[in-house]
C-alpha cells in the first residue's frame, strides 16, 4: 500500500497537479477497503499510462513519416531525378533537450532525414542491416508526387485524430489523479500509522497458549496510572474477551533516560544530549546549563548594545513561534527557532555583562553616576592619557568609563578579565566535582566518595582554589603582589621568603601545607580504590570452586569503577590501568581546564577590540568628513560589520566556546553520558522517511 501511494504521489507530481491538504469529508475507511481502492486506482492508472504510451508511440511514428514525406518531396522536386523506393530516417543524432508541454512531459529529439541510393537487393539488405544496427527508422516513399500528397493528407488526418485522443486521455487521467489527490494525504497518514502499529506488534511474542501476545516495554513511573487507564480503555473499546494484564517486572538491562522538558528547557536539554544522553538516574547537567551556558556566553560577548540586538531577534522568534512552529523552515532558521529561548537568555546576560564592562557598541556611558576620576588641572580636560586622579568613591556599577582611552586601559581590563575567567572556571569545576559526590551518594558508592571525590576536591582547591583566594585578596587589599611569582615559586622553592609578594600572615606555611595535600591527593586517587576492589572480590568469592549461572539471557553490565557488582571475570590489571588513566587525566586536566577558561578573557577582549575598531576606524572616520555620501557609506559599512561580524560570527564563536567549556571542562567531572533516550511509540514522531 505504501508503494502504491508513492506511485500515486509521483504520478500527481509529474502531471503538475497538487495534492489537496484540505480536510476531506469522506468517512473513515477500513484498511481492507482502502487496500481494494488503492489496487483499483493503481490498475486504472497503469492501464491509462499504457494506452497513452501506445498512442504517443503511434503519434511519433506518424509524425516522423509526415516529415520524411515532406523532406523527400521537396528533394525529389528540386533535384528533378527519379526517386528510389526506400528512404531512411536517422534517430539519435543530437543530444536531447527536455521541455514541458501543456499536455504532458515530452522529450524533444532532433532528427535528420537522409536518403540512400542503391542498386540491387543485396545492397538494399546491407543498408537495412546497417540502419537497424544504428537504430534508424526507414519509411517507403512512392515516386509519384500525387501518391505522396495523398499519403501526406492521410497521415495528417490520422495525426489530428491521435491528438484529440491523446488530449482526451490526458484529461481523463488528470481527472482520476485529482480525485486521488483529494484523499492522498489522509491515505498516506493512515497507512503510515498502520505500518508503525504493525512494526510495533512484530516486537511482541506469543505466550505458551498461542492465544495472546506478550510485550515488554519501558514506562515512566509517573505515567503508570495513565498507562493502565489507556489499556483498560483499549480493552473496553475493542470488546476484547481477554483483559489486558499489566505487570511491573525487574529488568536486567539499564532503563532508558527520560527528562520532562518544556519549550523553554528543551533546547538546553538538547545541548547536553548532543554530548551524550545521561545514564539512568545520574545528575542532569542541563539543570545548571540553563543559567551557566548563557552566562559564560555573555562573559565573552558582553556588550549591551549588541545584546539588545540579539534580544530583539529572540523576541521576534518568540512572538511568532505559533506561526513558525507550523511551517517547514530551512536548516538555519530551524536552528534559530529551536534555540529561541537560549538566544533570549544569552541576550539578557549579554546586556548584564555589557553593563558591567560599560560597553555600548564599544562606547562607555555614565549610566550609574559620574566617574571616580577627574583631571589634575585644566590642561588635561581634553586628554584621557595623563593627569587623571581619583577624587571620589569608585564607580557605582561596572567598569569606570574613564578607563576607556586611557594609557592603562588594556593592562587594567586584561588583568580584570583574566582573573575573572579563572574565578569562574574554578567555581564551575568545583561544582562539577560536587555533583560527582551527589552521583556517588545516590548510587551508594562510598568508594567513589572516599577515593575519588575527596582527593579531587583537595587537589583542585590546593592549587587553583588557592590561586582564586589570592586573586580575591589582592582585589580587596589593592596589593601589588605578583601572583605569577607566587604560584611558580610555590613549586620551585616553597620555603623561600615571599617578601613583597606576601598577601597575608601565614601565607608561606599555608602554601607548604597545600602543596603537600596536592601531592598526597594524587596517590590517594590512584592506589586505594583498585586494591580495595580486589579485596572485596576475593572476600566475595573466597572458597568458591564453581561458577555462577547467569540469572537472565543478558548479564548485568558492570561499570569498571563501580563497587556494586563484581563477577568472577574481575581483572585487577584492567581496573588499575583504568584508575591510573582516570587519575592522570584529572591531574593534567585540572591544569589544562583552568587554562581553557582563559578563553573567556580572550574572546571578550577580541569582541571589545573589534567593536572599537569598527566604531573608531569606520564610523567616526566617515563622520569626520563633511560629506553626506561618505557618511552614509561609513554608516552602511559599520552596520554591515556589526551585523555580520559582531552579531553573527562572534555570536557563533562565543556559542561554540561556551559549548566546549560545558562539554569538556564542566561535564567531564561527573557526567558519564552513556545512556540512551526513552523513545515511546508515537504517531507524532512518524516521518515520511518511514514509508
Automatic annotation (TrEMBL):
Coiled coil: 24-58
Transmembrane segments: 293-318, 339-357, 420-440, 452-473, 510-527, 628-649
GO biological process, one term: vacuolar acidification
Membrane topology according to the record: Multi-pass membrane protein
UniProt main location, coarse: membrane
InterPro entries tied to this protein: V-ATPase_116kDa_su, V-type_ATPase_116kDa_su_euka
Record flagged with keyword Transmembrane helix: yes
Keyword tags: Coiled coil, Hydrogen ion transport, Ion transport, Membrane, Transmembrane, Transmembrane helix, Transport
GO molecular function: ATPase binding; proton-transporting ATPase activity, rotational mechanism
GO CC annotations, alphabetized: proton-transporting V-type ATPase, V0 domain; vacuolar proton-transporting V-type ATPase complex
Location in or out of the cell: Membrane
Function per UniProt: Essential component of the vacuolar proton pump (V-ATPase), a multimeric enzyme that catalyzes the translocation of protons across the membranes. Required for assembly and activity of the V-ATPase.
Family: Belongs to the V-ATPase 116 kDa subunit family.
Protein name: V-type proton ATPase subunit a
Species: Carya illinoinensis
Amino acid at each position: 500500500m505504501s508503494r502504491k501511494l508513492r506511485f500515486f504521489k509521483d504520478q500527481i507530481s509529474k502531471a503538475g497537479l497538487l495534492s489537496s491538504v484540505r480536510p476531506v469529508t469522506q468517512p473513515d475507511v477500513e484498511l481492507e477497503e482502502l487496500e481494494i481502492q488503492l489496487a483499483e486506482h493503481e490498475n486504472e492508472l497503469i492501464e491509462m499510462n499504457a494506452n497513452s504510451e501506445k498512442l504517443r508511440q503511434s503519434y511519433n511514428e506518424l509524425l516522423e513519416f509526415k516529415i520524411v514525406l515532406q523532406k523527400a518531396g521537396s528533394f525529389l522536386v528540386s533535384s528533378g531525378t527519379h526517386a528510389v523506393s526506400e528512404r531512411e530516417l536517422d534517430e539519435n543524432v543530437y543530444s536531447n533537450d527536455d521541455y514541458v508541454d501543456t499536455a504532458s512531459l515530452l522529450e524533444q529529439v532532433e532528427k535528420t532525414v537522409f536518403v540512400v541510393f542503391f542498386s540491387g537487393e543485396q545492397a538494399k539488405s546491407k543498408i537495412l542491416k546497417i540502419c537497424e544496427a544504428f537504430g534508424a527508422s526507414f519509411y517507403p516513399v512512392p515516386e509519384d508526387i500525387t501518391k505522396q500528397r495523398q499519403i501526406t493528407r492521410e497521415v495528417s488526418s490520422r495525426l489530428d485524430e491521435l491528438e484529440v485522443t491523446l488530449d482526451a486521455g490526458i484529461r481523463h487521467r488528470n481527472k482520476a489523479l485529482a480525485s486521488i489527490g483529494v484523499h492522498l494525504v489522509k491515505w498516506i497518514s493512515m497507512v503510515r500509522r498502520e505500518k508503525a502499529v504493525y512494526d510495533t506488534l512484530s516486537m511482541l511474542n506469543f505466550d505458551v497458549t498461542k492465544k495472546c501476545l506478550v510485550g515488554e516495554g519501558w514506562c515512566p513511573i509517573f505515567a503508570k496510572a495513565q498507562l493502565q487507564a489507556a489499556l483498560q480503555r483499549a480493552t473496553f473499546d475493542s470488546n476484547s474477551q481477554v483483559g489486558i494484564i499489566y505487570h511491573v517486572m525487574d529488568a536486567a538491562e539499564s532503563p532508558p533516560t527520560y527528562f520532562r522538558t518544556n519549550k523553554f528547557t528543551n533546547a538546553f536539554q538538547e545541548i547536553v544530549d548532543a554530548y551524550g544522553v545521561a545514564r539512568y538516574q545520574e545528575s542532569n547537567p542541563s539543570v545548571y546549563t540553563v543559567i551557566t551556558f548563557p552566562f559564560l556566553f555573555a562573559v565573552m560577548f558582553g556588550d549591551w548594545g549588541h545584546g539588545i540586538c540579539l534580544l530583539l531577534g529572540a523576541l521576534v522568534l518568540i512572538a511568532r513561534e505559533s506561526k513558525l512552529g507550523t511551517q517547514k523552515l530551512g536548516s538555519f532558521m530551524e536552528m534559530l527557532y529551536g534555540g529561541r529561548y537560549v538566544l533570549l537568555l544569552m541576550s539578557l546576560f549579554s546586556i548584564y555583562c555589557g553593563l558591567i564592562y560599560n560597553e555600548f557598541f564599544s562606547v562607555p556611558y555614565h549610566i550609574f553616576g559620574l566617574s571616580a576620576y577627574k583631571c589634575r588641572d585644566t590642561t588635561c580636560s581634553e586628554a584621557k592619557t595623563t593627569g587623571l586622579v581619583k577624587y571620589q568613591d569608585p564607580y557605582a556599577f561596572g567598569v569606570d568609563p574613564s578607563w576607556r582611552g586611557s594609557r592603562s586601559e588594556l593592562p587594567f581590563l586584561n588583568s580584570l578579565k583574566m582573573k575573572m575567567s579563572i574565578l569562574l572556571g574554578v567555581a564551575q569545576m568545583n561544582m562539577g566535582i560536587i555533583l560527582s559526590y551527589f552521583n556517588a551518594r545516590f548510587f551508594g558508592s562510598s568508594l567513589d566518595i572516599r577515593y575519588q571525590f575527596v582527593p579531587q576536591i583537595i587537589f583542585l582547591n590546593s592549587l587553583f582554589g588557592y590561586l582564586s583566594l589570592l586573586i580575591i585578596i589582592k582585589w580587596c587589599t589593592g596589593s601589588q603582589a605578583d601572583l605569577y611569582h607566587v604560584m611558580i615559586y610555590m613549586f620551585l622553592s616553597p620555603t623561600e621568603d615571599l617578601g613583597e609578594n606576601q598577601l597575608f600572615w601565614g601565607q608561606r606555611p599555608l602554601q607548604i601545607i597545600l602543596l603537600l595535600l596536592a601531592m598526597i591527593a594524587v596517590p590517594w586517587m590512584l592506589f586505594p580504590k583498585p586494591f580495595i576492589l580486589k579485596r572485596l572480590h576475593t572476600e566475595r568469592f573466597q572458597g568458591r570452586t564453581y561458577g555462577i549461572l547467569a540469572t537472565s539471557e543478558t548479564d548485568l553490565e558492570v561499570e569498571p569503577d563501580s563497587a556494586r557488582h563484581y563477577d568472577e571475570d574481575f581483572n585487577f590489571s584492567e581496573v588499575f590501568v583504568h584508575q591510573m588513566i582516570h587519575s592522570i587525566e584529572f591531574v593534567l586536566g585540572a591544569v589544562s581546564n583552568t587554562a581553557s577558561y582563559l578563553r573567556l578573557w580572550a574572546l571578550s577582549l577580541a569582541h571589545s577590540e573589534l567593536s572599537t575598531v569598527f566604531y573608531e576606524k569606520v564610523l567616526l572616520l566617515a563622520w569626520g568628513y563633511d560629506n553626506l555620501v561618505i557618511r552614509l557609506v561609513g554608516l552602511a559599512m559599520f552596520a554591515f560589520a556589526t551585523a555580520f561580524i559582531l552579531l553573527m560570527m562572534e555570536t557563533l564563536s562565543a556559542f561554540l566556546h561556551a559549548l566546549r567549556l560545558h562539554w569538556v571542562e564542566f561535564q567531564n567531572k561527573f557526567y558519564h553520558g552513556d545512556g540512551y533516550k526513552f523513545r515511546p511509540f508515537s504517531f507524532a514522531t512518524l516521518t515520511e522517511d518511514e514509508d
